[in-house]
Design goal:
The complex is a heterodimer. Chain A has one helix and five strands, in the order ββαβββ. By secondary structure, chain A is mainly beta. Chain B has nine helices and ten strands. The chains are: A mainly beta, B alpha/beta.
Chain lengths: ~60, ~270
């Protein structure tokens, strides 16, 4: 299915947000996630299904002012 | 002397300088500048990973090694919804309830959207966040932010990155006098150590800055200069500066001056 990940359209097979992180190689990385502009806690990712057209944000710690 | 401990929510700090971590030429310079600044709190953000080089991971590892507290920001957020979601994500990743809340209104001045700011502050305070709002020097907005649960206020000195110093000294003084017991941190617009010292002489509790150190020719030396300026400014405030006068007043005593009783010659 086609989903938006960090603003880019991607064809993915993952049925859940947790599976998407695995599919994209984020397994061990500290990330924060949002689905359609709403925060999804790490503990809820396995139970968060993805559907075509969803917008996913995967964010990491970065420099800030 | 009115040198009460510097408290921000649950933390008692020694350094009154808070520094940003962006725009440094390298991670090594960033680390050296933070150490030289003596800052115990640094600001960080959440961003999309770019380039697949896991830069986020190495940055976070560097910050953790420095042993400082982090103050995550919601920089660039344009709506209450964005700011709240970003704060929630930051709390999970950085394991802190502190959030530097920014809701930005416009591109030219990066001015805070104070209406959205108050709304977001209320939501986040109810969710247990300890909110550090990036605001203007407006007293009414400050009242609303405190009503929304903020125990610290962070008024700007001037637009972010402008290096213009204290744009509205009267407004900042009024804010300080109106809220004598609320920790007030100047956030944004500081260009030189003199600006930071001036803020501290007004009785501000601390200063948060980024660009003035990161983009200086020698960021490490500039970080040290800011640390000294804050210390000097705070000491001066506690020592109660004399008020300005319109006319001169001789500092050397007039009594006993030679020739004082002789008639003046043309």
């Amino acid at each position: 299915m086609l989903v938006q990940v960090n603003g880019k359209e991607l064809e993915v097979r993952a049925p859940t947000l947790s599976a998407l992180l695995d599919e994209l190689g984020y397994e061990e990385t500290v990330v924060a996630t949002a689905l359609n502009e709403c925060f999804v806690r790490a503990v809820d990712r396995t139970a968060t299904p993805l559907k075509s057209g969803d917008a996913v944000e995967i964010l990491v710690p970065r420099q800030g002012g | 002397m009115n040198n009460a401990p510097f408290r921000l929510y649950d933390a008692t700090l020694t350094s009154r300088l808070l520094v940003g971590t962006a725009q440094y030429s390298s991670p090594a310079v960033l680390a050296a500048a933070i150490k030289a600044s003596g800052a115990e709190v640094v600001t960080v953000s959440l961003r999309r990973e770019s380039g697949g080089n896991r830069a986020g991971e190495s940055f976070w590892s560097l910050i953790r090694k420095l042993g400082v507290r982090v103050l995550p920001n919601t920089a660039g957020c344009r709506s209450v919804k964005e700011a709240v979601a970003t704060a929630q994500m930051a709390r999970e990743v950085f394991a802190t309830s502190w959030i530097k809340l920014e809701v930005i209104a416009d591109d030219d001045l990066l001015q805070p959207d104070v209406f959205g700011l108050v709304e977001a502050a209320a939501i986040l305070s109810r969710e247990g966040f300890q909110v550090f709002p990036y605001t203007s020097e407006d007293l009414v907005v400050a009242e609303r932010l405190i009503g929304a649960g903020c125990e610290v206020l962070m008024p700007w000195a001037a637009p972010i990155g402008s290096a213009r110093g204290l744009n509205n000294v009267f407004g900042l003084q009024a804010l300080r006098k109106h809220f004598p017991a609320v920790p007030l941190i100047i956030d944004a617009g500081i260009g030189t150590p003199a600006h930071a010292a001036a803020a501290m002489e007004l009785g501000y509790d601390g200063v948060l800055l980024n660009t003035a150190i990161a983009k200086a020719g020698d960021p490490v030396a500039m970080a040290k200069a800011f640390a000294l300026a804050l210390e000097a400014g705070r000491l001066a405030y506690c020592a109660e500066p004399i008020p300005p006068r319109d006319m001169a007043e001789p500092s050397t005593p007039q009594i006993g001056r030679a020739f004082i009783d002789l008639p003046r010659r043309a």
